[in-house]
């Protein structure tokens, strides 16, 4: 892979399953050594995009290159240069951890001595040496995910695709997986990561693509995306959900945009320019309406705010349609 070329390049890619258009002209790129995150809810097209980049699906149109190779024309050559970890651990639970990694080495046709050495190295790297000879069915969820990631690295791929790698993990295991991913890029691997966890994108990504309905609707670093919706957010929690629209009317006079109303959490939020006395003025206006305020606060915007402003909905999971590659 040439150092001056993107590790991953996706240009105007479209994919349809029957009447459903899963990807609608997706564009993105990953530079060598970067962690790039596709952020969006299930159903946005993230998994479909990853399956195309990993040669498991053919795009209907558009161009995709990974490690300098075309994913359609050079699919066979490319598969030895990429690693893929899906949403669910693809390991054999009746084999031991060591046997799983050994099996992947043999599938990649590595020499027996090289497979043995690589297996030992990966077991140590992912803190699985003590459990190496136990059946995987005895592993915790976090251990299975680490083993699955280790299996995708048996051939030391220059490009790694991680499709929601921390789904179902407890907070401690998720933090451990983040450290592993950071370590991979420090060693030179280019990583494309999909997630519906806003904090995950904030913590890991060098670059973020916000995906919704099969398109990239925003692109930039976490700080750049947050700056698009203003420096600070004024957020009010109402005691009575019936007062939400009243509160929104009040905030229209103070905000830099249209207030967002979250009926489920009884919250109203708007981007504002902070100034002395702002909160006092807002409270005085709300008191005059007779509305009951439970909480009022100023805070920095989050990626959740970015997603709400850009899409009109939060990054909550819905079913994504993915066709099994034939």
From TrEMBL:
PROSITE patterns listed in its UniProt record: ABC_TRANSPORTER_1, ABC_TRANSPORTER_2
Membrane topology: Peripheral membrane protein
ABC transporter domain segment(s): 8-238
Keyword Transport: yes
Molecular function terms from GO: ATP binding
Pfam families attached to this UniProt entry: ABC_tran, DrrA1-3_C
SUPFAM superfamilies: P-loop containing nucleoside triphosphate hydrolases
Keyword Membrane: yes
Annotated localization: Cell membrane
Keywords on record: Antibiotic resistance, ATP-binding, Cell membrane, Membrane, Nucleotide-binding, Translocase, Transport
Family: Belongs to the ABC transporter superfamily. Drug exporter-1 (DrugE1) (TC 3.A.1.105) family.
Name this polypeptide is given: Daunorubicin resistance protein DrrA family ABC transporter ATP-binding protein
Organism: Fodinicola feengrottensis
Lineage, opening ranks: Bacteria, Bacillati, Actinomycetota, Actinomycetes, Mycobacteriales
